[in-house]
Amino acid sequence: MLVVATKKEHDKALAARKPDALTVLYFWADWSDECKQMTSVMQVLAKDHSEVAFLTVEAESVDGVADLYPIEEVPAFILLKGSSTKPVDVIVGANPPKLVEAIKKHSVKKTAATKTESKEDINTRLSKLVNAAPVMLFMKGSPENARCKFSKKIVGLLKEEKVIYSYFDILTDEEVRQGLKTFSNWKTFPQLYIKGKLVGGVDVVAAHIEEGEFRDLLPKGITLHIGKSADTTGMNFTRIVQG
């Protein structure tokens, strides 16, 4: 990622981009817990998308840059094509799956065939999914409507611990559901992953919490302060809809 410290650096970086090239401007502030989470997400995305330019801008410190864009809060992500400062997409808040989807949408040509994606090796897809957010929960249903008692219980545990996480509903994708059983050598759901590594199911997570070890597993910035929420809806989770 390129750190932009002046408007001149911003202008120079955009001027060097080809007409169809995607640039992601990440506006952040050091006082924001959500920004700490999304900085980790951005670092992963930068490694996965070498064709995209990722620029980070400290919103309150770099004069003349934030004023160019519709930014009212941080974290904020402005997606640009070529050297234009007209956004093709704007993402506000700690929403990893929405950001991933926007980058995927705008970084590929509209005429590109999707056959390659359909033939993508399942393990590659699963690897991307478990790393889609710093904390990923694979469950039956959604946090608002869990479809089994174990999924409901782990959602409750994460809520009590005030953990920001993303989730994937395995009931919507049989390939993911069956593939994860072999991928992680864990036959049951839910499955919780932190930084791409399997922690375990509800019993394992509950044991870590009871023993006071769970928070040590979390990346910095993933837990919420009392009264804070992960996004404008008041929820501490976001949904991953595809890998």
Topology record:
Layout: E1 2-4, H1 7-15, E2 22-28, H2 33-48, E3 53-58, E4 76-81, E5 89-92, H3 96-107, H4 115-118, H5 122-130, E6 135-139, H6 149-160, E7 165-169, H7 174-183, E8 191-194, E9 197-200, H8 202-210, H9 214-217, E10 237-239
Parallel strand pairs: 1-3, 2-3, 6-7, 7-10
Antiparallel strand pairs: 2-4, 4-5, 6-8, 8-9
How would you describe this structure to a colleague?
The chain has two domains: 2-107, Glutaredoxin (3-Layer(aba) Sandwich); 121-239, Glutaredoxin. It has nine helices and ten strands. Helices cover 35% and strands 19% of the residues. The chain has helices at residues 7-15, 33-48, 96-107, 115-118, 122-130, 149-160, 174-183, 202-210, 214-217, and strands at 2-4, 22-28, 53-58, 76-81, 89-92, 135-139, 165-169, 191-194, 197-200, 237-239. The chain is of the alpha/beta class and 243 residues long. The strands form two sheets. A five-stranded mixed sheet has the order 1-3-2-4-5, sandwiched between helices. The longest helix is centred in the N-terminal third of the chain and has 16 residues, at 33-48.
